[in-house]
Specification:
The chain is about 45% helix and about 15% strand. It is an alpha/beta fold. The protein folds into two domains: about 50-250, Rossmann fold (3-Layer(aba) Sandwich); about 260-420, P-loop containing nucleotide triphosphate hydrolases (Rossmann fold, 3-Layer(aba) Sandwich). The strands form two sheets. It has an eight-stranded mixed beta sheet with strand order 10-11-9-12-13-8-14-15, sandwiched between helices. The chain has a seven-stranded parallel beta sheet with strand order 3-4-2-5-6-1-7, sandwiched between helices. It starts with a helix and ends in an 8-residue tail after the last strand.
Length: about 425
């Protein structure tokens, strides 16, 4: 009996110790969580969105999207946009330019009126849908209308009757509605031109200028792009009543550091075989494959399908609805591989793209920059892989010098890749 009693006492003491340990661990966990919250509050207070003039309601929306700390371009642009300044903003892809203009414009909207206040001009239908998607994530009840070519004009007219505060569209379709007097340019307080270098190129210049002439000279003008050529600066300034502030972010190294740049040597006849092997080795969950011409998209996608890859082809000749559905499927992970042209290399923000494959070498430095900018976004790692022939190698290295990036040549050995190292011959 005595032994049994001692055993019971031992168990009680042991249980008490365990309870004390668990209680201590729980207290430490609570303390850690409190410290983490305090740190987040400190970051938000000292250098976060609230210090830049963004309201708590929008900050809460950003938090739900996993965005807590503003990027450099957002830190510089938000106060300037709120102050109604004209801006020319150059910042690399993936740095948060869309939020840099949307957040302050959403803050400034007058919700008591039923007039269009903000017009966002974009070079492609895909970018228009992306901007609309971001607006809807930040302000669910706000009426925003996309005006793009290839869609039903009648439906867009009906959407305009809902009195949107923001219109996002491509220049041709937006101008069409101006001419039909479906949009009143006198109420527009801000015009945003996203991807300004492409918008002010020969194909869009006329429509953009005509649209500006149909609005008040006193409106605010915001130009955003990853690259702004010198000839664009004078043209852009002519559209503003007051000289613009120029914001230049990361001008020396425009490609995010977290992107690795690899290349494989192969001639034209072996490119498909090489790409097939690389896709099997790397097994990307989401990747984009760029080629030079629209005509080759369907062919390459078909060849890869025959080899067992889950892939689709996206090019400008597809209908607007089909393009939209393909992009949605790719965004949602239903299609892991997307073959496309430079159509998608500008302004598109699709999360989780691990690899960019340059099946065809980009035309120049600017095209390489916009292609590889689809990966390595929001600080995440990414890899750009280029297939290049011996004759093209010097072009790739010229691009690397211009962008100040480091290239690494890789080789294929069966089902393995390895870095190619050249050794000097001993004399």
């Amino acid at each position: 009996m005595k032994k049994s009693k001692e055993t019971e006492q031992g168990k009680t003491i042991g249980n008490n110790k365990m309870m004390e340990q668990e209680k201590k661990m729980e207290q430490e966990k609570t303390t850690d969580n409190e410290k983490k919250l305090d740190n987040e509050k400190m970051i938000e207070k000292e250098g976060g969105f609230s210090s830049l003039g963004i309201s708590l309601s929008l900050i809460n929306k950003l938090t739900k999207l996993g965005i807590r700390v503003p990027t450099q371009v957002q830190q510089e642009a938000l106060p300037a946009v709120l102050a109604k300044k004209n801006l020319l903003v150059q910042s690399p892809t993936g740095t948060g330019k869309t939020l840099a203009y949307l957040l302050p414009l959403l803050e400034r909207l007058n919700y008591e009126t039923k007039e269009v206040e903000v017009l966002v001009l974009v070079p492609s239908r895909e970018l228009a849908f992306q901007v609309v998607r971001v607006i809807q994530a930040l302000a669910e009840k706000l009426v925003v209308v996309p005006l793009i070519g290839g869609a039903s004009a009648e439906r867009q007219v009906q959407s305009l009757k809902e009195k949107p505060k923001i219109v996002v569209g491509t220049p041709g379709r937006v101008l069409e509605f101006f001419k039909k007097r479906k949009i009143n340019g006198q109420t527009i307080k801000t015009i945003v031109v996203d991807e300004i270098d492409k918008m002010l190129s020969a194909g869009f210049m006329g429509d953009v200028l005509t649209i500006f002439k149909k609005t008040l000279r006193s409106r605010q003008v915001l130009f955003f792009s990853a690259t702004i050529p010198h000839n664009v600066l004078s043209e852009a300034a002519e559209l503003m009543t007051t000289p613009p502030d120029f914001i230049l972010v990361n001008s020396t190294g425009t490609v995010p550091e977290q992107i690795k740049h690899l290349y494989f040597m192969c001639d034209k006849t072996r490119k498909l075989l090489t790409l097939d092997k690389l896709l099997r080795i790397y097994q990307p969950q989401r990747a984009m494959i760029f080629i030079g011409r629209n005509e080759g998209v369907t062919f390459l996608a078909g060849q890869l399908k025959e080899k067992g890859h889950q892939v689709e082809g996206l090019h400008s000749d597809l209908s607007q609805l089909k393009r939209k559905n393909l992009i949605s499927a790719f965004r949602e992970g239903k299609v892991p591989l997307l073959v496309t042209t430079d159509l998608l290399a500008r302004g598109m923000d699709i999360a989780g793209i691990e690899y960019i494959f340059n099946f065809d070498l980009p035309l120049d430095t600017k095209h390489y920059l916009h292609r590889v900018g689809r990966t390595g976004r929001a600080g995440k790692a990414g890899t750009a892989i280029t297939l290049v022939s011996e004759q093209q190698k010097y072009l790739l290295y010229k691009i690397a010098r211009d962008l100040k990036i480091t290239l690494e040549e890789m080789g294929l050995d069966g089902q393995k890749v390895f870095p190619v190292q050249y050794r000097k011959r001993k004399r």
